[in-house]
Amino acid sequence: MVPTSYYVFLSAFIFAIGLYGVLTRENAVVILMCVELMLNAGNLNLIAFAAHHGEAAGIAGQTFVLFVLAIAAAEVAVGLGVLVLVYRRYGTVNIRKPSYMRW
Amino acid sequence: MVDELATLVPLAPEFAVIGAALLILVIDTFSREKHGAVALVVAFTGVAVAFVATLFHLAEGTDALLFHDTIVVDGFALFFNAAVLIATVLVLVSSTEYIEKFCPERRENLTEFAVLVLFAASGMLLMASSRSLVTAFIALELAALPSYALVAFAKDDKAGIEGAMKYFLLGALTSAVFLYGISLVYGATGAFDFVGIADALTGADGDVFGLAGLGVLLILVGLGFKIAAFPFHVWAPDAYTGAPTPVAAFLSSASKIAGFVLLFRLFTVAFPTQLDWLLAIQILAVATMTYGNFAAAVQSSVKRMLAYSSIGHAGYVLIALAVFTGADADSAFALGAGMSHLFIYALMNTGAFLVVALVDDYWGVGYTFEDYAGIARQAPVIGVAMAVFMFSLAGLPTGAGFLSKLAVFAGAVNSGFWWLAVLGGINSALSLYYYTRVLKWMWVEEPEGATPELEGKPVGIYAAILVAAVGTVVLLFAFDPVLSTATEAAESLLGV
Predict the structure, then answer these.
(1) Burial code of B36-66, b = ≥16 C-beta within 10 A, e = fewer?
(2) What is the pLDDT of residues B362-418, one digit of tens each?
(3) Is residue A23 assigned to a domain?
(4) What range does the domain containing A29 cover?
(5) Which residue among A45, A83, A85 sits closest to B184, beta carbon to beta carbon?
(6) What ipTM describes this predicted complex?
(7) Could you tell me if residue A39 is inside a domain?
(8) Contact residues on chain B for A99, CB-CB shorter than 8 A
(9) Could you state, in order of their start, the residue ranges of all structural domains in chain B?
């Protein structure tokens, strides 16, 4: 059996990739994809820990992952809607272009 | 069957709000024309019913666990429910006229506006009642997703879209961080419910503690975003400035309050202080209030100044949690003081934003301090209301903000953290500068050139502003019931 820690390291790695992408990319859709990567890193963690904790405590973790999947889908739906508006108004989804407000 | 339904009675406020939202959707589906007015009446009724139900349960002293102990309805949750519902109703009342004037092309979509506000409000109510990280995450997203859409509601407005994009991208990022934190805490403890986490962590050893500690830090990032605490506040000024002003009022009051209730319950119940989160909250509190006040002082736009002032207020309220020393009477008092400040803040901050909605957008005089010149002499009622809000936010005894802020600082001193109270006091004094600046322009200064024409007296916006102003003043004299209700709720939460 693969030790739980392997999964946790893998998920930490995926999380780090996602975070790196969010911080460096300029295309809002790519950033959204990176955020999804981070969410899935969390999911992977939950599944791995669920298996680690065994049946009674584990079932909660597995169920939570299903909720997270649904929420992530809803989030993308709203987010892409916002990005469509951005594209219509600014002609691009580069996050540096809309700079109407400066502080 | 009937018995099982009866167990759901404590959730009546949530059901009323969600039911109203669904009813509006059904009406909208089956009617040929758009009935914005009907939608708002239904929404208003739903929120009013929810408010009455909340007060009823609060008076009854309801304390119930539902859905396998993942939802709890206690005094703590109900107190915050009341604050969230007040902010919601003020926003709903003022939004019709605002949208008709500010974005007439969206007049047809008033129903959607009402539905989005109600769904966001239901998410906030559920955040107050969450007793498990699962429900907390779902409720948080339920509150957040409609908020993104609300900020972008005026869909041809450049600033609104930009604000919505920043809000959404940062919100999605922090919710992913929040989820990762949850997964680490779950890994360390094998539990999602707050009490289970606390049980697993007491008497845990080093490795488990490290994992849980990292998780707690990430969860703090997620909630810090929600309450707009420095350095997770970067979205707030842009989202508030870009959003339709009633939406900005809603986000800076109700959404922030909901973030705080989750923060309070989660950290006091689930995470033992041995995890050293206290230091993180103290740093957060000092950084947030100092940054918010200094940034507010240099703004040229009134709305943006209010955005930063709301960041500053998040810092004051964080003090209430930063002085937590365990389940004792002092901590309960400090927590209760923070809760009362949030309650008063819901009135005065929403009111202040609505004054901006009226002057800036409805009358269209402009957004800078200079544009407000002479407004108070033309509309004395609004001038007086703004004076009440500003002085109350600053902490002068013209409104209940004075007493609630005093209680927060007294709580800090009681718990032995006098230095936090001193820093808070200094910040309050600083904040007087930019709050009085608005009033100086409104009351004293003469406008350059022609006096701006103030066309129309929108009944809804006026009513909402007056309710907020009168509430702020009345609570100055009736502050004790608020504080004692909050303190009792905090005591029962901590089990003092």
Answers:
(1) bebbbebbbebbebbbebbeebbeeebeeeb
(2) 888 888 888 888 888 888 999 999 999 999 999 888 889 899 999 999 999 988 899
(3) yes
(4) 4-90
(5) A45
(6) 0.96
(7) yes
(8) 162
(9) 276-496
